[in-house]
Amino acid sequence: MRLPVLFFVGIFSISHSWIVVGPQQYGISENSSLFLPRIFPRVFQSGRACPGSGCPLALLCWLTRTGCNNGPMMTSSSSSYTPSVATAVNMMQALRKDIHIENNDISVSDYDVECGIQKYSAQKRIIGGHTAGFGELPWQAHIRIAGFQCGGVLLNHNYVATAAHCVHRARLSEITIYLGEHDTKDTGRWLEPIPEESFAVVERIIHPRFKYMLTQPDRYDVALLRLHRPVRFKANILPICLPPDEKVYQGKIGVVAGWGKTDTSYGKTGTNVLQKVLVPILNNIDCRRWHHQKHIHVELHDEMFCAGHRDGKMDACLGDSGGPLVVLDEGRWTLAGITSAGFGCAVDHQPGIYHKVSTTARWIRSQISAR
């Protein structure tokens, strides 16, 4: 009997911010009764709503020619204008934020000032998806673990979040995290004006309630990795926003991204260029019903959610575990889920399963602020 493969998935957009929703987890192969991690063998080949006529990220917006709430930067009912640097700086000081921008580097005293903000605009395989533009998802992390790979997401200057199943057994010396990555093979086919940066990991924090489940995805499939040095934010390296506690994104469209498989055919490997896909976030009742129609029993808890299309076609796959599912929420991309698991890739009625970040956001904040 051929058993279904369980994979981990996750990213989407709400309003104007990207939010991560869940990591990838395990799979069952033929002649096996156990789920295996949905990690891939390494074949490396916000601004909030703008108050009045100004943008909370005035200096950053002014320098990058971006806007607020999908509108032009610094507008009024009668005209739009470009503020002077002094004006922009005064606005930022009024918000008591300390921002310094030099040669594409951004130093910020409070990451919330710029979390979930894209400096590079979105552009047009994760299966059924599209190639992401350079810097389009600046919070995306590429995690290499010995002979495997997983995804991750940058939270602040010091921490990356990923799926616990990706790293719970790995030696810290085996883990390398790449930020600002686009083409892992540096083929030269893609314009990468700013290089990626690599980081070692000095500490791993697994959620205390995580259990390595071999027959079902785990409800607390989340881990935090502390980097060996602080991250200097750049146009292609910026943090994601964490969601409010218990925030629900059911019915929203999320964005999932990663360097995992783009073809479900046997023997196919991961892609070297970052891919993205849009997936609707489902309620758990529908997710259970869909799986039941395929004679698959899946245990879903409040700390989990599903995202995907009824007819399959677009999904995360092997190698995308631990990556973010983000949504646009009040002008900023927010982490709704972490790719955790899935029974197969892009199969009808078998959507991806994610860890719901809003249920552990308080724990995450306490960990990354206490160290």
From TrEMBL:
User: What keywords appear on the UniProt entry?
Assistant: Disulfide bond, Signal
Q: Which GO terms describe its biological process?
A: proteolysis
Pfam families reported in the protein's UniProt record: Trypsin
Task: Give one GO term, molecular function aspect.
Answer: serine-type endopeptidase activity
User: Keyword Hydrolase on this protein?
Assistant: no
Indicate the segments forming the Peptidase S1 domain, all copies: 126-369
What are the boundaries of the signal sequence?
Answer: 1-17
The family database entries (InterPro entries) matched by this protein are listed as: Trypsin_dom, TRYPSIN_SER
Q: Which branch of life, at top level?
A: Eukaryota
What name does the UniProt record give this protein? Peptidase S1 domain-containing protein
Which organism does this sequence originate in?
Allacma fusca
